[in-house]
Each structure stands twice: as structure tokens, then as C-alpha cells.
Design a protein that fits this description.
The chain has about 270 residues and is mainly alpha-helical. The chain has twelve helices and no strands.
Amino acid sequence: MPRHTIQSILLALIALAASHAHAIDFGDLINKELGTLGKPSPQKSEPAASSNTPATTEAAKPAANLASFSNSDQVASLKQALIQGAETAVASLSKENGYLGNNKVRIPLPENLQKADGLLRKFGMGKYADDLTTSINRAAETAAPEAKDILVGAVNKMSVDDAKGILTGGSDAATQYFRKNTEAALAGKFKPIVATSMQKVKLAEAYDQFAEKGGKFGLVEKRDIKMDDYITRKAMDGLFLLIAEQEKAIRANPLEATGNLAKKIFSAIKF
């Protein structure tokens, strides 16, 4: 300990002793004061955390509020909301420019064709890329209506446990349920329609023109793209994206749900 620090302590203690009428044991007092130097100040003890914290209460809110509704009401209300969301998404994608005119779901050229796209545009030949992109999205729009029956079928097969899991789950719990239970069936339904539509929208012709122009730059050597698989996959991705948006909208604003029962239950579980 620095010498000047000890001297300061001694002077302070002498001044303290002079102000008191009774005698002070300087040795004992100095030892006590010196012994406390360098030690951390005592900390105030924090009260024990309550077992019923706000976070716990919030997390339990949906399940607790849901308990006031019968199982049949829970399932019925959820089915109303899911069918509403699915039908809205399918209707949006099935119309002309449903995919092409929506930046969120528009299907771009396959990745290994995008270099050719960029180069063609530099030489004023973007028309070939645009025609091919249009044909791809038109094929997806033609297949989209087939999703409705498959999605509604998945809703009708829903169990009570499925419904509870969706109602108390995350913001995309219903979308994940749809993806898990319909993706394979949707792919099987979409792909042949996409393949047929590719002929109607002259996608092969558009691809040939694109490939011919891109081939001049050594960028497209052969038709190595399974376009029907690519369109099918991207079409489903767009469908699930719009369904997810519908689900989030209903969870955020239950009054957008169809039917009074659905409005009540989604209001009850809203955080």
C-alpha cells in the first residue's frame, strides 16, 4: 500500500478521535480500516426471481385462453381460417400475372441461365430472356388452381392435436403443416400440368431462342435444365409464401378471419 495512503488514514483517524470525548483504541481502529481496503463493497442481495415471471405468463397465455373453447370449436375455427388463407393464396396465383406480376413469387430464370440473361441484355437482346421468363411463370399460373383441393383436403384431415399445435405454435405453424402434408401431392399434381402448359405457352420454343442467342456467347451449350421440375418447385415455394402471409395477417388481426368463431379464438390466443 502506498505510504501517502496510510498517512492519510492516520490523519483522518486522529481528527475523528479529537472530536469525541471518549477514548479510542487507535491500533484497533487502524487495523480495521486498513483491513477493509481493497475489498469490494458489500452488494445488496437481489430478491429471488419469481417463478411466475411475465415471460412465463405470456408464453402460457395462448394455451390457457384456448382451454376455454371446446376441442370441436378449436378445430372448426382453425379449419375456417386455413381454408380462407389457402383459397386466397390460390386465387391470387391462378390469375394472369399471379406469379409474373408479383415480385415476391415471380419465378426467375434458373440460376445457370442467368449469366446468359445478363449478357443478352447488354447486347440489347433482353427480349429472349423476358419471353422465357414469361413462359415459365405462365406455366406456374396454369398449375396453381390444382392446389386448392389438395390444401382443403389436408385441412379436413386435421386432428385435434394438429389444431392445438397450430393455434399455439409460431407465426407460420399452419404453413409448415401445409408444407409437410401437401408438398408431395402438390408436386405430383403440378408437374404434369406444368409440362402440358409448357407446350401451350411455347416454353420450349422460347427456350430454344434464348439458348440459340446465349449459345453464341458460349453460355448455353445444351438443354440441361429440367424445366418442369424447376417450375414445379418454384411454383410451390410461391404458394407457401402467400399462405404464410395470409396466416400472419390473421394472427396479427383476428378480425380478418372468416366466421365469428375463428375471430373469437384467434383473438383469445393473440399475444
